[in-house]
């Protein structure tokens, strides 16, 4: 991998799409919204009307993403937006994983504003409480015995690392306010500029 392949993940309402769109505009990344890909290419086996979401075909999605990331987009900087990572090859596809967090009360407000069903709200808040995203990401690296580098909150200290596009870096941040999102974006832009 000689180009940035960034995954921005977190539960719905944590700011994934906002951050990805900023990276697309500011750094000319190809933006891949996996939920839209699933809908547009009909990579789903069913639709859950209670939770208003597709039930995607994991094997088909894996094959499509693998082809996109390793073949069709291999000469581009890519930023990927998705929250369900069970079928992802995290180490092979990405060299930077950004995990966004928000508190349950704030997420509940955002879900209500989005008119989520009560079942969908309850499910997502339970996932937030159980730290589902963290379990999936770190569990993937533990289960596959693959290495990663967890970046410090202060990304200026990341200069101390011997950078390699073959390494997967993980950054965790809260993204509850516009100030936190602005700071995160500026930190990422500086990080990318200093390492490329």
Write up this protein.
The protein is of the alpha/beta class and 196 residues long. It has a single domain, classed as Rossmann fold. Helix content is 46%, strand content 18%. A 6-stranded parallel β-sheet has the order 2-5-1-6-8-7. Strands 3-4 form a two-stranded antiparallel ribbon. A hairpin with a 4-residue loop joins strand 3 and strand 4. Helix 5 runs antiparallel to helix 6. The mean pLDDT is 91.
Number of helices: 8
Average pLDDT for all residues: 91
- Principal-axes geometry comes out as globular
Q: For the largest sheet, list the strands in their spatial order.
A: 2-5-1-6-8-7
CATH superfamily: P-loop containing nucleotide triphosphate hydrolases
Task: Give descriptors for this structure.
alpha/beta, Rossmann fold, six-stranded parallel β-sheet, two-stranded antiparallel sheet, 46% helix
Quick structural overview:
46% of the residues lie in helices and 18% in strands.
Write the topology of this structure.
Elements: E1 5-9, H1 16-27, E2 30-33, H2 34-40, E3 44-48, E4 53-56, H3 58-72, E5 78-81, H4 90-93, E6 96-101, H5 104-113, H6 118-129, H7 132-143, E7 149-150, E8 169-174, H8 178-195
Parallel strand pairs: 1-5, 1-6, 2-5, 6-8, 7-8
Antiparallel strand pairs: 3-4
